[in-house]
DNA sequence: GCAGGCTCGATCAAACTCGTTCATGAATCT
DNA sequence: AGATTCATGAACGAGTTTGATCGAGCCTGC
């Protein structure tokens, strides 16, 4: 990427988020923090952003809280996401589900050569400026509360593609191994996603074992792998293993 | 290949990708980096691209988005966008094209009860938090430099929907009334958009009359209306009127 | 108000890019 | 045929960008 392009993207990223930390920007754009600092200095001199300690603010909407920049990550959930990201080899394609779980996976994909397909608007924002990643957005109706795309357009788009990996979130896994979800409207999309992937990986921290949900997404047999953590209910894990699902502890 | 041909191709490549590095262009065109540098120097002198360290950027010519330097005709372009937004009645659906022109229309839609369909990521960002608006995103490959979605997924999504209004941007309208675009890759998407709308409205400020572009988007007869401003070339306007297009001055 | 962790700018070496120069070969002119 | 023009690629020194490192300064929690 050209230096000028990178600087344009920094400005764009700040417009989207209101603010950005040096470390975050460096990760997003795949360069060192030193380079980001130099860019910020230059852009500040040009009046295209406001430099602050730890990062920069967008120049117009500069009243956003900067606290988010140093937000603390939920360490455990992040470990699961990191483990999931390690499963994928460069050059492969993956499908990221709706929800924060999938967003966390996306955060670990920066700088890698991958094709990412998603209906998750938070993932789109996260990876929008990452040149390395070929990003494909599924169509659909914007569901603001969940920052996602749903509906028949999404399902139709899924029928047009096929990927190596699917990373699926869930509201909970029932004791018999069935994967559940709390919102009906997402279920047809999740089913279509399962059909569009070779490997279906479920991401679920220990609080999802066992868990509830009104809508059944799929049977355990439809999963290839479950990434979870130690502390997840033994019986449910056994049920999954029996169904031929590989259970990985992050 | 002739030098002129090669230079045209460089300009075309930049329009498609937004920017290009010397090394990348040399590889693409099968010549040495020295030759590319000489070409870039010459094209820069002709104003057909912007030279930057490491390569070149596409020049702001067509309905080219997000180059940050478009504060020039902002006032006039905004008047056209406002006029366009007034055409739509609450409860109706509209399709917004790629580009800054469509983004400006979106900025005038806040708070209204409408269904907005788009493949423009800037429009998505603009309307994402507007509860009143039902927002539908077309699928597709993310084209970062233009903040848009393109490709067969986009076209396929367009086949699934139909809207009342389409607001179309352009790089220029030829003297015979043909609507042109500067980037080939957008054309199939724009054609699919035209098919998916009852009323096709072209938005074009006076600098687009007459204008050029490598790719033909549609014949004047396919348009329902053109919103422009006084000062736009009379002859071209007459040509449009003759083709049955209503020409509105903002 | 103190300690520990971050962030900062400065500095340096390595990698990259730039414009210039020169030699080569093809096409055109004399 | 010989001379001239022109585009091209290789080579080179100068200038630019980048990432790593380091000491100084700033923030936060105790």
UniProtKB/TrEMBL annotation, chains A, B:
Q: Which UniProt keywords are present, listed alphabetically?
A: DNA-binding, Repressor, Transcription, Transcription regulation
**Domain HTH deoR-type: from-to ranges:** 3-58
Indicate yes or no for the key word NAD.
no
Offer one Pfam family short name for this entry: DeoRC
Q: Which SUPFAM superfamilies has this protein been placed in?
A: NagB/RpiA/CoA transferase-like, Winged helix' DNA-binding domain
Q: Key word Isomerase present in the record?
A: no
User: What molecular function terms (GO) are annotated for this protein?
Assistant: DNA binding; DNA-binding transcription factor activity
Sequence intervals crossing the membrane: none
For this protein, the record's Gene3D superfamilies field holds: 3.40.50.1360, Winged helix-like DNA-binding domain superfamily/Winged helix DNA-binding domain
SMART domains from the entry? DeoRC (SM01134), HTH_DEOR (SM00420)
Q: What does this protein do?
A: Repressor of the lactose catabolism operon. Galactose-6-phosphate is the inducer.
Give the protein's recorded name.
Answer: Lactose phosphotransferase system repressor
Species the sequence originates in: Kribbella kalugense
């Amino acid at each position: 990427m050209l230096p000028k392009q990178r600087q344009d993207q920094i400005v764009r990223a700040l417009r989207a988020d209101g603010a950005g930390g040096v470390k975050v920007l460096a990760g997003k754009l795949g360069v060192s923090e030193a380079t980001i600092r130099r860019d910020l200095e230059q852009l500040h001199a040009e009046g295209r952003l406001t430099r602050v300690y730890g990062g920069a603010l967008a120049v117009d909407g500069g009243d956003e809280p900067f606290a988010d920049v140093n937000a603390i990550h939920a360490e455990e959930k992040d470990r699961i996401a990191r483990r999931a990201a390690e499963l994928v080899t460069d050059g492969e394609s993956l499908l990221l589900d709706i929800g924060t779980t999938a967003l966390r996976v996306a955060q670990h994909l920066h700088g890698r050569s991958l094709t990412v397909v998603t209906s998750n608007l938070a993932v789109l924002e996260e990876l929008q400026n990452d040149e390395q990643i070929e990003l494909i957005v599924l169509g659909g109706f914007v569901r603001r509360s969940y920052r996602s795309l749903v509906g028949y357009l999404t399902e139709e788009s899924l029928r047009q593609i096929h990927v190596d990996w699917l990373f699926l979130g869930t509201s909970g896994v029932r004791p018999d191994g069935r994967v559940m979800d709390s919102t009906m409207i997402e279920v047809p999309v999740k089913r279509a996603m399962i059909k569009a992937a070779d490997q279906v990986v479920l991401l679920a921290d220990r609080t999802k074992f066992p868990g509830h949900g009104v809508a059944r997404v799929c049977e355990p047999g439809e999963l290839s792998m479950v990434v979870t953590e130690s502390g997840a209910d033994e019986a449910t894990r056994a049920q999954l293993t029996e169904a031929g699902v590989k259970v990985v502890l992050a």
